[in-house]
Amino acid sequence: MLHRLTAFVAITALIGVSACQQAAPDQPTAPDDGQAQAPSEALAVNYACDSGVTIEARYPDKASAQMTYKGQDYVLRNVQAASGARYVGSGVEWWTTSRDGREVATLSLLSPNEEVAVSVLEHCARPLTAPDLTSGITPPQPVPEPTPIPAQGGVLPASAPCKGPQLKMVAEDGDAGMGNRVRNFSLQNVGTSACTLTGYPGVTLLDARGQAVTSVRADQSPGSYFRQGQAPTPVDLAPQAKAYFEVAWNVVPNEAAGQKTCPNVATMRATAPGDTAGISLGFAFQPCGGKIRVSPIRSASAVQPAT
C-alpha cells in the first residue's frame, strides 16, 4: 500500500482534534440521584473480582441490568455485543461471557459518548451452577447471549473475541508530510481458531527503560486515514489473517505550550479490545504535542484507498 503526500489533508484533520479532550477518570462516576435506583427484587448474582472486590448484579429482564460496585448502584441497558451480553450506562460497561463452566465479566470505564471502553476496572467471574457462597442460594443462569447481528456488509462476527496471546503485532507501511506522521500496524491471528476484533486497541507508549511515557496520551479517532468518521465494525480473523489499525502523530514541538523537545518512545504496547494482555513491539519515534491518534481496528480491505 503506497500512500501519497497529497493525502495528508486527511491526516491534518486526524491530528487537528482539540487538545482540550480530557482523559478518562480513574474511577466511574456514580450516577446522579435522579438516575440511581434501588436494586430490584431480581435475584442477586455475586461476581468475585481479581482485585478482591465483589460485584453484585441483578438482571430483572433481558434489556437491563443493575449493578452494585463499591457501594454505588448502576442502572445499565443491554446493547449489541460481538459475543456474550454487554450492558452500558452511568459511564461504565459490564460485559459477561460464558467460558469453561464459568461466567466471566469485565467492568470498564466508557468513553464520554458511551460507545467504547477506555479502561478496564475489574476482571470478575462466578461459577455457572455453584451456589452463591455469600447468600446460600443458587444464582440464575446468565442472561442468554443476544443473537449476533450482521455488521455493515452482512458479516457475522466470530464467536470469540481475539486475545493477546493469539495476536502478533507488526509495523507496516506509513507516510509523512507537513510535520505529520502516520503508520499502519497489523494484528495477525497466530492462533489455531478464528476470532474477532471490534473497536479500538488500547495503546501504551514505553521509553527505553520500559517505563510508561505518561506525557503522551492515546486518543481514539473515529474512521481511519482514508475513510474519516466511520464507526468501528467487527473484523473476523481466520488463523494467520491480519487486521490493521493506524497511529498518527505530529513531530513539531508545541512551542506555544512551552514544548522544546518531544519525548522518546522505544516500545509500543497494544491490547485487543476488551482484553488486558499486552502485545509489545519495538518502535522508536518522537510524538509531539502530548498525544497520538489511534484509529479503530479495520479489515485489510478497509485500509486501502477509496476508489
Class per helix and strand makeup: mainly beta
Shape: globular
The beta-strand count equals 18
- Which spans of ≥5 residues are poorly predicted at pLDDT below 50? 1-26, 32-38, 130-158
Mean model confidence by pLDDT:
76
Write a compact overview of the structure shown.
The chain is mainly β.
Question: Would you write up a description of this structure?
Answer:
This protein is mainly beta. 3% of the residues lie in helices and 41% in strands. The chain has one helix and 18 strands. The chain has one helix spanning 8-15; strands at 44-49, 54-61, 64-69, 72-79, 85-89, 92-99, 102-110, 117-127, 167-177, 180-189, 195-197, 202-206, 217-220, 235-237, 242-250, 265-271, 279-285, 288-294. The chain has an eight-stranded antiparallel beta barrel. A five-stranded mixed sheet has the order 9-10-15-18-13. The protein has a three-stranded antiparallel sheet with strand order 12-16-17, with no helix packed on it. It is globular, with a radius of gyration of 21 Å.
Relevant terms:
globular; mainly beta; 5-stranded mixed sheet; 307 residues; disordered N terminus; 8-stranded antiparallel barrel
Write the layout of secondary structure elements.
Blueprint lengths: L7 H8 L28 E6 L4 E8 L2 E6 L2 E8 L5 E5 L2 E8 L2 E9 L6 E11 L39 E11 L2 E10 L5 E3 L4 E5 L10 E4 L14 E3 L4 E9 L14 E7 L7 E7 L2 E7 L13
Parallel strand pairs: 13-18
Antiparallel strand pairs: 1-2, 1-8, 2-3, 3-4, 4-5, 5-6, 6-7, 7-8, 9-10, 10-15, 11-14, 12-16, 15-18, 16-17
